[in-house]
Design brief:
Helices cover about 50% and strands about 10% of the residues. It is α+β, with helices and mostly antiparallel strands. The strands form 4 sheets. It has a 5-stranded mixed β-sheet with strand order 1-2-8-5-3. It comes from Dietzia aurantiaca.
Length: about 500
């Protein structure tokens, strides 16, 4: 389904056509990278044990970082074919060693490992400038446990059931603005839809004029590519070009979030509000270890940035696959019709096939291609000992394309998820273990609502072959042409 890099037997230099590291780049990177990162033991600890790590590409560190972010569906299968799994990538900052694993036993060791040893926050450090130092995705140890305890009630089963009506309402309003027929770029429309959903879920019925001003800023800030994401960690670049604009947009979002938090704390009707901001502010006020305003801001930034982009991208891939597979599409429609015929409405099992479609989409097109865990002390993964400072990375791309786990893994086949619960070591779009995505259930619910309403209104027709190359946006992979499909009114 995806092209590969180089021919069998080509070496790394042939693959990249003798790409050279820019003169002085390492010295410049060392000079501008934050002291906190340069002070970590990673480079010193790992360099003494390089010979004990699995082999891997010898490409320049910057190029490996760019390929891992922008073309993981090329880099990871090509490296696995040449070096086997596990293999080692060496990337910025400070020749960071990332060992890619994908076999179920290896993934299990990572997800079942002690959170005090397998640090996800340090593994996700690239996101720090975007999400903030207090983001749940970037915290470890006691800070992470405390933040997750305070956030978890907002994503309980009862709360998600309560959000469903709002998601249905917003989705219907957004679809009313879609054309009745014709070609569209589904990813663009879905980003607008899911951004509206998350803003309404997070902030409730806030000042609509303020939300109108923030929508384009949020959308632009989240649209950062791999070059911008890497450059944000280099202070010398923050005052120029696209990095300057990104910093300015993030500052505007932080100001908006700070104002929303302050207004919520003063709101006399706070106890009656059901939006996520209100739930978090009340939880913080009732808990002696409640979140500060700065912590709330970063958690809200994480919810807004990650909470809409990932769902929009997954649903864009889903619309592409449904357009390419009319039989699957019509089976979903038939399932909805049967559920609607029941006097009592849709029951829990009435979305079984649609749920299987969503799971297969997330398997074949993982929105986030890898999980990162930095070792704080030596650990055994898959029967191999790794030193402190190494980052162990379960590759979602490789795990989801394993012939052992998924026969004919390149095929789109929702049947493989009917009647079976996917195992957490072979299906990992939401990560796993203590760091599994806190919003996974909300994302699945939102995906159900969106696809149900889209298929009720439209028949999806492919444009051309209906295939699109995955393109990097922050750390997610979206369809290159923004999921071009033709809408045909039902």
């Amino acid at each position: 389904m995806y092209p590969t890099v180089g021919a069998e037997g080509d070496d790394d230099e042939t693959i990249v056509m003798n790409v050279r590291r820019p003169a002085g780049f390492r010295r410049a990177a060392d000079a501008v990278w934050p002291d906190r990162l340069r002070a970590t033991p990673t480079a010193r600890t790992v360099s003494d044990m390089d010979t004990r790590l699995p082999p891997g590409p010898r490409l320049p560190n910057l190029l490996q970082a760019l390929l891992a972010l922008s073309a993981p569906v090329v880099l990871f299968p090509a490296a696995a074919k040449r070096y086997g799994v596990p293999f080692t990538l060496t990337m910025l900052p400070q020749r960071r060693k990332i060992v890619a694993v994908s076999e179920p036993a290896q993934v299990k060791d990572v997800f079942a490992g002690s959170p005090s040893v397998f640090h996800a926050g340090k593994g996700n450090d690239l996101l720090r400038p975007l999400l903030g130092v207090h983001s749940l995705l970037l915290q470890d140890g006691g800070d992470h446990a405390r933040a997750r305890r305070l956030l978890a009630p907002a994503f309980g089963r009862r709360e998600i059931a309560g959000y469903r009506g709002l998601v249905e309402q917003v989705t219907a309003q957004q679809l009313d603005r879609w054309p009745r027929s014709g070609r569209v770029r589904a990813h663009v429309l879905l980003n607008e839809l899911t951004l509206e959903v998350i803003l309404r879920v997070v902030f409730g019925v806030s000042d609509t004029a303020r939300l109108d001003r923030m929508r384009p800023i949020v959308a632009r800030a989240v649209d950062a590519g791999p070059v911008v994401m890497i450059g944000l960690g280099m202070p010398a670049l923050r005052g120029i070009g696209p990095w300057k604009r990104e910093v300015r947009d993030l500052a505007a979002i932080h100001e908006f979030l700070g104002e929303e938090i302050e207004q919520a704390r003063r709101d006399p009707a706070l106890a009656e509000r059901r939006d996520l901001l209100a739930l978090l502010v009340r939880a913080s006020a009732e808990d002696a270890q409640g979140l500060t305003d700065a912590e709330l801001r970063d958690q809200l930034m994480t919810l807004v940035a990650a909470g809409h982009e990932t769902t929009a991208t997954a649903m864009a891939w889903a619309m592409l696959e449904l357009a390419r597979h009319p039989g699957v599409q019509e089976r979903c429609v038939d399932e909805m019709a049967a559920a609607g015929a029941d006097d009592d409405g849709a029951a829990a099992g009435d979305t079984e096939y649609l749920d299987a479609v969503i799971k297969e989409v997330l398997r074949l097109h993982p929105v986030v291609p890898m999980v990162m865990r930095e070792l704080q002390e030596p650990a055994n993964v898959g029967g191999r000992e790794y030193p402190r400072g190494v980052t162990i990375s379960p590759s979602i791309v490789l795990a989801h394309r394993s012939d052992d786990s998924y026969p004919s893994p390149q095929d789109f086949d929702p049947q493989r998820f009917l009647g079976d619960v996917p195992t957490p070591t072979t299906w990992l779009p939401f990560g796993g273990g203590a760091r599994r995505c806190i919003g996974a259930s909300f994302a699945m619910m939102e995906g159900q609502v969106i696809l149900q309403q889209v298929l009720q209104r439209y028949r999806l027709i492919p444009v051309g072959r209906g295939r699109e190359w995955p393109r990097s946006r922050n750390v997610t992979l979206y369809p290159w042409r923004r999921a071009r499909v033709e809408l045909q009114a039902r």
